[in-house]
Amino acid sequence: MTEVVPASGTVHWVGAGLSTGSGLAALCDTAARVRLWHRTEERAGRALAALGLADRAEPRAYTLPGLAAELVPGDIVVSMLPAPEHGPLLHACVGARAHFACSSYVSDAVLEQVPAAGAAGVTVLTEAGLDPGLDHLFAHSLITRATAAIGPRTAASYTLTSYCGGVPAVPNDFRYRFSWAPAGVLNALRSPARYIEDGAETTADRPWTATRPHVIDGETFEAYPNRDSVPFVAQYGLPPAWKPRTFVRGTLRLDGWLTAWAPVFAELEAGDDQRIAALAGELAARYPTTDTDRDRVVLAVSLDVRAGSGEHWSGRYLLDTVGTKEESAMARLVSRPLALGVGHILDGSLPAGLSRAAETGGRSETWLAELAQSGVEFRSRTD
């Protein structure tokens, strides 16, 4: 295996959108040098000032050639850009032997460059935010504990559900507020969702048609499946002797969302791309997140395992956070885990090649303990 390129101590944080929060400040504490790349140097400077980091990081005007010109081996590039821009950015990193990190799902454009990155000694950290990210840590931790209790070779069936949602802290009639471009929300709802229910793979052509009540600590939410849960059975490394009854990764919404959004669903069913784009603009104007609104993030991951011999194990993790005037819950919970992962690139504990957050139970427990120490609050329970 190629040795990982030693970290230089310089972190390039690219993008200062709504998910850039106190994780950037945490990196200013651990990295030797931090540069924030944004659309213009002036806007980067304003973003740093808003975060209280004006004297702790260097503002830069982002262009890919401009960033590439400053990269040296061992630098770390943190991409907060839209997922389609990760491929070209990673290509520049591999060429410079600089490490790469993001909070997004692994795209094909990223995956095809992983062999070259590994051969160059470059770490590619992905799926290291909230969802994906914290949900992976919770799932790996639960699976490791359940495996120790039940045994990996014991015939068993299991239910694993992983639901996450960003919702208004104070519910409105629409049961939702848009904190970023609503086109992404609408287009996700137009994509089929694949998951496992009653032991069989199931596809919902329109995810909202599979919405179910989901009760968390006595509060009823509504949950619908994400695009494709099935590959995560293998990614999470569940024992082959265990068979899934239910396996679904999905989105949480406030109770009443399905009814409130009925007119939107009608538009999604009938509208073409042009109409959906117009609808996105209308909804953004009608239901924005303003400076006085507070967001709420809820992440609930549960695992229930039942062995044929009668043994039973269940456990769950729950995170429920409300944003503050200083920082939204979403920004905190995306940027903090990502910064933690970047910290592990800085200390050399992540290998060359691809890492999706922490991919073992042991490392997940370590990362969760570190996140708790950094002020990310969650709780776990086993029965």
Folded structure, characterized:
35% of the residues lie in helices and 28% in strands. It has 14 helices and 16 strands. It has helices spanning 22-30, 41-50, 64-70, 86-96, 108-111, 114-119, 134-150, 182-189, 231-235, 257-260, 262-270, 273-286, 329-346, 361-373; strands spanning 10-14, 33-38, 58-61, 76-79, 99-102, 123-126, 156-168, 193-197, 200-204, 212-216, 219-225, 242-254, 295-307, 312-322, 353-356, 379-382. Strand 2, helix 2 and strand 3 form a beta-alpha-beta unit.
Structure summary:
The protein has 383 residues and is an alpha/beta fold.
- As a percent range, the share of strand residues is 25-35%
- Specify the number of helices: 14
Number of strands: 16
Secondary-structure-based class equals: alpha/beta
Please summarize the sheet with the most strands: 7 strands, parallel
Whole-number average pLDDT?
A: 95
Shape: globular
Task: Spell out the helices and strands N to C.
Answer: EHEHEHEHEHHEHEHEEEEHEHHHEEHEHE
Main sheet strand line-up: 3-2-1-4-5-6-15
What are the segments in which pLDDT stays under 50 over at least 5 consecutive residues?
A: none
Helix content: 25-40%
**Termini separation:** 41 Å
Radius of gyration: 21 Å
